[in-house]
Amino acid sequence: MSAPHDPPAPAAVHSGPAAPLPVIRPATPDDAGELAELFWQVRNESVPSIPMIVHPRESVLPFVETVLLREFEVWVAQDGDTLVGFLALMPPDQLGHLYITAAFTGRGLGTQLLGLAKTRFPSGLQLWAFQSNEGALRFYERHGFEPVEWTDGDNEEHAPDVRMVWKPAAGD
């Protein structure tokens, strides 16, 4: 699966203090419904940078309940009472999903979630991203990921993708 997020955002002019980043916490089974809606929302917001999810909307909640929350280590970003992003990791080194709502991209949340992923898997990470998701590819490259493998669409969306790998620098 690919991971959309943090495309460059226009510079914002702030007249007061910066808004605090959302709270990041482990996901719980009680988050399943809102997490499913967030998953759908971000995939929808990300078209055409990434293809729309190929499964019907009603299949997202069962996926979140039976796969995402059971097989992945999931962290959510919560702004007040609302989930605005999530990170899904799978040992030993897989970053499976990093999704952030459009309203929260470009604010450092992706960097914060990616930092958490690097802390959880300090020996290295790998992920797949759609080649068309140029903002995500630049984001990952800025954070030390290198492209190592490309496909012509060997995924359920049949869209070209790229596997990227991060390894800590010597001495980290």
Explain the overall architecture:
The longest helix has 15 residues. It is globular and about 40 Å long. Helix 1 packs across helix 2. It is α+β, with helices and mostly antiparallel strands and 172 residues long.
Task: Present the secondary structure layout.
Elements lengths: L22 E4 L5 H15 L13 H12 L1 E7 L2 E9 L3 E7 L8 H12 L4 E6 L3 H9 L3 E6 L9 E6 L6
Antiparallel strand pairs: 1-2, 2-3, 3-4, 5-7, 6-7
Q: Could you give a short description of this structure?
A:
By secondary structure, the chain is an alpha+beta fold.
Shape: globular
The helix-and-strand class reads alpha+beta
Characterize the main sheet: 4 strands, antiparallel
Strand content: 25-35%
Q: What oligomeric assembly is this protein in?
A: single chain
List the keywords.
single chain, 172 residues, alpha+beta, four-stranded antiparallel sheet, three-stranded antiparallel sheet, 4 helices, 7 strands, 28% helix
